[in-house]
Structures are given as structure tokens and as C-alpha cells.
Amino acid sequence: VILIELIGFGESFGWLATLLAGISISFLIINVMVMATAFYTWFERRMIARFQVRRGPNRNGPFGMLQPFADVLKLIMKEDTIPDEADKPVFTLAPIALLAPTLMIMIVIPFGTFINKDAFLSNLNIGILFIVGVTSVNSIAIFMAGWGSRNKYAILGSMRGAAMLISYEIPMALGITSVLILSGSLAMTEIVRSQSVWFILVMPMGFFVFMAASTAEMSRTPFDQIEAESELGSGYNTEYSGIKFAVLFLAEFMAPIVTAAVVTTLFLGGSQGFDFLPGGIWFALKMFIVIFVLLWFRSTWPRLRIDQIMGFAWKTLFGLGLFNIFLVAVEFMLAREFNQTNNGSLTTDYMLIMSAVNWIITIAVILIMANVVGRKKYTRPEPTPSPLANMGIGGN
């Protein structure tokens, strides 16, 4: 009501109304994301417990749903210590630098329609470039956390993290490039509108590359070498405690939610769905499915070694990403040649044909890559008996 009254006074107060609206929506998104992350931590622990045939949190509240709030209170009440040898400004800024980009991604995510209105904070015409640029800050933040701690395990974990995140940004960008070729726009809303057939069906190879790279960018299993407990204690956050550790914890568990929102927008048609439910509900359901798949990965796959992680990025995902771009570009040129475009977008019939062809090609290419790049099954050599084993006991 206040915003409407300010706008009614004339154009001179329009900037103030815009500013207050932006602050209000930002405050709302931050609080919603914090509460969603709290619920996600409970959901993840319960789901992983089911995968491992145990109960999970079940003490605080019904079904243990108040466990996240108990964890937050415990972390806040703990002493916030800083090592004597630490670089205090860098050590303090690292958790904020890791959390802020995760929240900023939600600025350009179109959540669908609510009460016949499009729900998004900002409809940037370069929304996907904004996401790529913001996510690149994570590698700097992780290195800041390790370097500022002046701890050998933290520094080693942060160096691993920086190398891994920079390596996997390239396959992730290649997966995004194929989306841009088909949509013809950098705006997230236009990418959603161009998906008369979801892009996960049209270019499954690009989806697989993006999902694998995004999982590595989150440092989640099987790409969690950054904080391998058996090797590095707790990795880059070894020296953190209290509220600083709570912020790092929040950023880590908020990342799957944000990743699910980006995947839903780029490959699952965003808020598109049947008319009997609002677009925002469809968006939330698709996000839930993506989050469940990410939890499935974490619950079933073992942790990879650091050499396997880096080799997978450069030997497998990089090649698949380049091949996917070449394939999509050729198919897009053929669509123009045979007049299968409508206002710059591909027709639905042509996208269905692409879906059938690309799934066959994707399965064939992955099988070939697995046999060429993947390691062969280890065969144990037959033991060779020693001549000494058959010597008789005693002598003539």
C-alpha cells in the first residue's frame, strides 16, 4: 500500500518506490531461502538415512523437523574463535563471499506466475551470463577461507577446491552454450518460453554435462575432495567455528536448492506445466525432483580421488560439451535450411525429431567414451609358484 501511494504522488517518488520494492523482495527472498535451506538440511539427512537403512533425525519436533533450528542455536552459541596466525580480514570475509553469490543467483530466476503475475526479482537480458559470472566467485571465496586460516589442511583443501571449481566451470559453460544456441537469448524468461519441448529431451548430452559440472561446483559427493575428512580434517573450513561456520554451512546446503532452480529453468521448462496448477507450483515440483536426484547421487556414489575428478573434467566432460555444441549447432543450421524455425525458435515438431536423434547419439557417444577413456576392468594375474615352494624337506 505504501508503494502504491508513493507511486501515486508522481514520477518524482517512483525511484523510492522501486528501491523499497527491491529491498522488500530481496529481504523476502533471503528469508525464504534461509528457511528452505533449514528444511532441506532436515530432508537431506532423513533421505540419506533411508538410503542407509536407518532413521535419521527424529528427536526434536515431529519427525525431527526442528533439528535444523537446534543445530543453528548450537552453532550460534559456540565460541567464535580466530587463529592467532590467521589473516583476520580475509578469514572473516570468506564466509560472506561464499554465501552472497549463492543468494544473488536467485535474482534472475523466473519462478513462474502467482496471481497472474510473473514472479522474478529482475528480468535481466543477460541473466545466464550473470549466473556464470557470479558462480565464478566461489573459487575465490574458498581460496580466501583456506588462505586466511593459515592452516596446512585448510590451504590444501582450498587449493584443491580452486583447481576443481575452475576446471568444472568450463564444462558448465559449454552446457549453457548449447542452451543459448537453441533459445537464441541470454534472458532466463526467454529461455523458458523457447522450451516448447524441454531441453532435457532435446539435448540430453548437454543436460548430463551441466548436471555433472554443477555437482562438482557444489563440491558434493562424489566431488567432495575439498573437505575429505580422512585426508584434510574438514578442508577449507577447518578453523571456522560459531557463526562463521554457520554461514559456511548455510552456503553449502543452499547450493543444491539454487542449482535445482537453475537446472529447472534451463532444461525442465521452468514453470511450464498443465493449467490446473499455477506455474510456481510446477517450478517447485521440478526443483524437488532435481534435489532428490542430487541426494540420490550423494547417497550412492563413492568419493573420487582428486586425479579422477580432474581427469573426468578434462578428458570426459570437456569433450562431451564440445561435441554437444557442434551437434546442436549443426541441427540448428539444418532447421534454418528447411524452414523449421518460428520467430527465431525451433518448431515443436523439429524439436521432437531432435530429441529422438540426440538421445540415440548421446547413448552411443557415452558408451564410446566409457570404453576409450574409462579404465578397463582389472584382471588379477595368476600367481606364479616359486621353485622354492616344491623343494623337498631334508636331503640325501
UniProtKB/TrEMBL annotation:
GO terms for molecular function: NADH dehydrogenase activity. It is found in: Membrane. It is a multi-pass membrane protein. The keyword Transmembrane helix applies. The chain crosses the membrane at residues 15-43, 90-112, 124-147, 168-189, 195-213, 245-268, 280-297, 309-330, 350-373. The keyword rRNA-binding does not apply. InterPro entries: NADH_UbQ_OxRdtase_su1/FPO, NADH_UbQ_OxRdtase_su1_CS. GO terms for biological process: aerobic respiration. GO terms for cellular component: membrane. Keywords: Membrane, Transmembrane, Transmembrane helix. NCBIfam families: PRK06076.1-2 (NF004741). This is Uncharacterized protein. It comes from marine metagenome.
